[in-house]
Structure formats: C-alpha cells, structure tokens
Write a structure and sequence with these properties.
4 domains; alpha/beta; binds S-adenosyl-L-homocysteine
C-alpha cells in the first residue's frame, strides 16, 4: 500500500529526463508547484523549447548521465528509451531519491496522482499506477462537483484560524464551531462572489452576534434549461443538491427534478395558463417565508429565469426583505431549441440580429411591433406562440414579410421527444394544425430556418 504525501518542491531542484510532450506535461505540473526544473535530453519538443526561451527551465542538451542526479530532490524519467529509463530509476533508487518513470509503475518509487487544484486545497486521485485513465475520469467528475472558489473559501477560513483558536481553546469546541459554520450558508456566499459578506458573517458567528449570524435562510433562483438534464449548469446542480425545499414549474422535466437532493421537499407551483397552482404573488411571498424559517429554498424554473420567467419579480420581494439570494442563468429555450434543431440564430449571410418575443394572446390578439418583426436579415424567436401561430404568421405577412420566409416550430426541444416542423410563413400554421402537438413549443422565423435541413443533428428519427 502506498503512503500518500504531498511534497514541498517550491524552489527545490527537480530533474526531468526526456524532452517530448510527456516530459513537457510533467515539467508543467512541477512549474505549477514552483519547483526549479532541469531538463536533460538530446532534443526538446516545441513547448519545452518555449519554456526554455522564457527561462522557466534549465536545460542540458545531451543524454542522461548518473551525475545529473547530484543535488536533486526528485526525478521523473519520461523518455521512450527503456534503457535510459531503467538507468535513471536504478541510479535514483540507489541513492534514495524519489523517482517516477512514466507509464512504468514497477520502476517508480512514487506515483504522480491526478489532481484537482483549488489552491491551497489540493485533491489527489491515485489508482496506484494501475489505471491513469480511470484516475483522470474520476478527476473530471470531481472537477465538476467542486466549485472553483474552494480555494477562496480555504483562504477565508485560514485568515480566521488564529482568532478561532484563541476564542475556543479546546480542540473539540473548535471543531464544532467550524462544522457549524461550514454547514451553514458561508460557503455559498463565497462561491457566489460575496466574500466580504462571508467574512462579516464569520466574524458575527465568532462574536456571537446572533442578529447577523442567524440569517442562514436563502433563496436560489435557478434556471434549469429547456429540458435536457445535460444542459443544467454546474452551479445549478450544486445548489439543487443542497436545497431543503424546491418550488418548481411545469416546464421543469422530471429528469431534472431527479437531480434535486433526494430528501428535499418538492412543491409544484404550476403555471398552466389560467389554471395556476399558485398565483405569482403567492409564490413571491412563499419564497420570503421559507427563507425566514432558515431554509435553503430552490426556486427552479425552465430555461433562463430572466427570460420570460418573471424571475425579476420573484427576487424583488426578496431584495426588499433583505433575504440573501442568488440567480443562476440557464440555457434559454431559444438557444436550446435552435442548437438542437440545427438552426443558427444568427448567420453572416442570413441574420445579423435575433429578437425574442412572447406570442401570448391577450383577448384573442397579440400585441407586438409587427412592422419591426417583419423586417429581413433577422431572426425572430417566439415563446408561448403555439395558440397564436396562425395570427403570428398572418400578421408578419400583412406587415411586409414574404409568404416564402422560412419558419419552424420546435416541439419539446432538447428532449428525446423533440420534433421540428419547418415550412414558411404561408404553410406553418397548416403544418402544425395537421400534427398533434404537445407543449412546450417554440417558433423561429427567418432565413436561418433553411439551414435546419442541412445542419440538423439531434433526434433525427423524429423529424416532423
Ligand atoms: N424562462 C424560459 C421561458 C419560459 S416561457 C426560458 O428561458 O426558456 C415558456 C415558453 O418557453 C414556452 O411556452 C415555450 O415557448 C418555451 N419553451 C420552454 N422550454 C421549451 C422547450 N423545451 N421546447 C420548446 N419551447 C420551450
């Protein structure tokens, strides 16, 4: 069994034998740890050449000689010559100098783990040299789960260490304090870029200032994207996994809801046209109330919360009530559906701008600036337009758009059920009327729609 350690190589002489791309990668990691690197090799690859020119490394342009190991704290052999690698390993081992031979675990006295850097936090994954690929795979998983601001968090905690030590002389009390602090909202404050607020909260906790410290309740207004769970952002996923309660819309798919922490309470707040499960005002107030109870409240919405999502209204009341909140953008239906349908929203030849509008009916008509929307060389994306598709296509033509202008309707975009119906302003309404359509749907109008036939790549079996 290996004994895991991290080695302090800052300003220490380290030797790399070999001058290829593999050697370059090892040089790079050593430089990240601020080691003093010497490379021995008859030749250098381009990236090592660049490192030499920038004086990041020392270089001996020749084959390895045993004396190279004098006054060295660590050696890595990365040549493609088995004999050289063996000589390096033998020489180093005889002198008890840690040596690693790339891809040759039996010659190594140490293994270089796959690492996740959140300086000063360092996470290492090692398979003991049995499968570097598996280690890298695990690393990728961890990378996505651990926010990049972990280093900042560690820095903040480090800055308070002495103060906490003098306040709690006993180790157990100290540990309790840190555990309590870290299970609250502190980390999330740092991750969402509010370090000063985090510092104040930590200070308040330390000073026993209950008024400031006890505000642990908070709201996450999170965009869940258009349907495909793969389009959820890392930040959204993290918040979904730490919420105590989730309020979600009809547009949030069950696959996405499955990503929410298992024991979080789930509340459906609806929105199915007139038949709202909860009125908007009631939702706004519920968010405030739940946060006041100290809960971590996840408000999960389809697409992006700030695009036809009334996200602004929901956080206005939170801001008024001084409740901590953060907003996480999501992939909006326009970009999700367009990309999954192979329709670029802008294109040098066809569209220099793109407009998002809502096609919701008000008393049987739609109140939009039709002459602006009918112009050429742009793409118009219509949310909530299924009911009004006929009115929309007719109005655009009445305001000067040609009947031949391409238009498409995308049903349940980005999901396995996605279908794309494409036609023109003259034909779309009829095409849609012939099919049994399921919400949600999005309409795209403009010459870019032509590209769908050439660029479609997703769910091709379901082409409408
Ligand atoms: N905030 C959301 C939009 C909410 S309005 C966003 O940024 O995407 C609801 C409308 O969004 C629906 O009526 C439909 O027009 C559109 N929509 C949302 N998800 C969709 C999907 N997967 N496929 C097609 N349209 C979608």
């Amino acid at each position: 069994m290996d004994f895991p350690i991290t080695l302090k190589v800052k300003d220490q002489p380290c030797l790399i034998v070999g001058g290829g791309e593999v050697a370059a990668r090892k040089v790079n990691s050593l430089l990240q740890s601020q080691a003093q690197v010497t490379v021995v090799s008859p030749e250098l690859c381009r990236s090592l050449q660049a490192a030499l020119e920038q004086q990041q490394i020392k270089y001996h342009a020749r084959s390895f000689a045993p004396e190279d190991i004098n006054n060295i704290v660590l050696v890595i052999a990365a040549t493609n010559d088995a004999q050289v690698n063996q000589l390096v390993a033998r020489t180093a081992t005889a002198r008890y100098i840690p040596v690693n031979v790339v891809d040759c675990p039996e010659l190594c006295t140490f293994i270089v783990p796959s690492i996740i850097r959140r300086d000063p936090v360092l996470i290492a994954v090692s398979t003991g040299g049995t499968s570097p690929v598996l280690a890298r795979l695990l690393r990728t998983r961890l990378e996505t789960m651990i926010p990049t601001a972990y280093g900042q968090l560690a820095g903040l905690l480090g800055a308070f260490r002495e103060q906490v030590k003098s306040r709690f002389s006993e180790t157990v009390a100290r540990r309790r304090f840190w555990e309590r602090v870290l299970s609250g909202s502190l980390a999330e404050l740092v991750f969402s870029g509010r370090e000063e607020q985090a510092r104040q909260a930590l200070q308040a906790e330390l000073d026993n200032n209950v008024a400031v410290a006890a505000r642990t309740g908070e709201v996450y207004l999170v965009g869940a994207g258009p349907g495909d769970p793969d389009l959820v952002t890392f930040r959204a996923l993290r918040l979904m996994q730490q919420a105590d309660i989730v309020l979600y819309d009809r547009l949030v798919s069950s696959e996405i809801l499955d990503l929410v922490r298992r024991d979080a309470e789930r509340v459906y707040v609806g929105k199915h046209r007139a038949n709202h499960a909860m009125q908007q005002g009631e939702i706004n107030q519920t968010l405030v109330d739940l946060a006041r109870e100290g809960k971590r409240v996840l408000r999960l919405k389809g697409g992006d919360p700030f695009i036809f999502g009334r996200g602004g209204e929901e956080i206005a009341l939170l801001a008024e009530n001084n409740i901590t909140f953060q907003v996480v953008p999501g992939v909006t239906a326009a970009s999700g559906c367009a990309t999954y349908a192979g329709i670029p929203l802008t294109h040098r030849d066809y569209a220099q701008s793109v407009i998002f509008v809502t096609g919701q009916l008000k008393d049987g008509s739609i109140d939009l600036n039709w002459s602006m929307l009918a112009q050429a060389q742009q793409t118009v994306v219509i949310y909530m337009g299924l009911k009004g598709v006929d009115i929309i296509c007719t109005a655009l033509q009445a305001h000067g758009a040609p009947a031949t202008r391409p238009a498409a309707l995308i049903e349940q975009g980005t999901t396995r059920k996605q279908r794309v119906f494409s036609g023109t302003l003259a034909s779309l309404a009829e095409i849609v009327a012939q099919a049994k359509i399921h919400a949600p749907t999005l309409i795209i109008v403009g010459d870019v729609v032509k590209l769908h036939h050439q660029l479609a790549w997703f769910n091709l079996d379901h082409r409408g």
